Amino acid sequence: MNSLNKQFTFDISQYTQEITQNPWEIVTLILDILIVAFLIYEFIKLAKKSKVWQLIKGIFFLIIITILSGLLKMHILNFILSSIMTYGVIALLIIFQPELRRGLERLGSNTILTKFFGIDESIRDKTRETIYKVAIATEELAKTKTGALIIFEREVKLQDIIDTGIQIDAEVSPQLLVNTFVPNTPLHDGAVIISNNKVACAAAILPLADDKDISKKLGTRHRAAIGISKETDAISVVVSEETGKISIARDGTLIADVTIDSLKRILFKQLVTSRFGTDERAKKITDFKNKINNKKETKKDSMTKEKIDTKETK
Hints:
Blueprint: H1 2-21, H2 25-48, H3 52-71, H4 75-86, H5 88-95, H6 97-108, H7 112-117, H8 121-143, E1 148-152, H9 159-162, E2 166-171, H10 174-180, E3 191-195, E4 198-204, H11 220-231, E5 235-239, E6 246-250, E7 253-258, H12 260-276, H13 279-313
Parallel strand pairs: 1-3
Antiparallel strand pairs: 1-5, 2-4, 3-4, 5-6, 6-7
């Protein structure tokens, strides 16, 4: 331990000398700190939305007890806790496997460039249109108490699940969605996956949530909706076959018995606002783009006029 402390102290002093000799190292240090702080912030924000947060608090408590047992010279307890901490990394990888996979998938499909450097207005409008069509279909299905399960793909791709269903690749329409879930038809059992504002497939098989704290009253559709929302960032819309009530599942949580207005509001927030920003932000970006285009057109017109005037003078 002493040799490790000496090595660490030596590294710190050496790094301090490098900064003194080369002031540009300060920029690298600041950037390093900012990146680490951002990663910690994103991890905490992601963890708070799941059950991982409770585990993190338990691990933090375990670390404090380990340190205290060492300071108070409780050798047996310290030995046991230290042994647990030694193999803790492997245990964490096993415990957090779903969350780690989900986080890496989000990182791989990061849309940070789109958010900072502009947005595709046509995709935004298309997404809004898709939400309205799904809401119309959901309302009709709820009135007739027709069981339905519709999944919205987001950043984490669902190709593995799409492959389990019947490929459709059609434009979203209320008529298509309602007819798909008509009882005793080939495609009614399973989930419809909406990807890139298209009906990618029907009759898809989803992973079921098997948590003990989930109500036993919930059927297969609701468990499938919760299951896919836990493993990915997808949004699930469920219509109960028994009651006709509408529910939404996201981040492993089921929001039961929502109205059509609430359904649209939640879908807009999760699929449009979270990705493209508010309407005000989108309007500012559009106005900024139009202003740049207008300046280019004005400059082009003035150059054309100058050429015409030059020809007339000659």
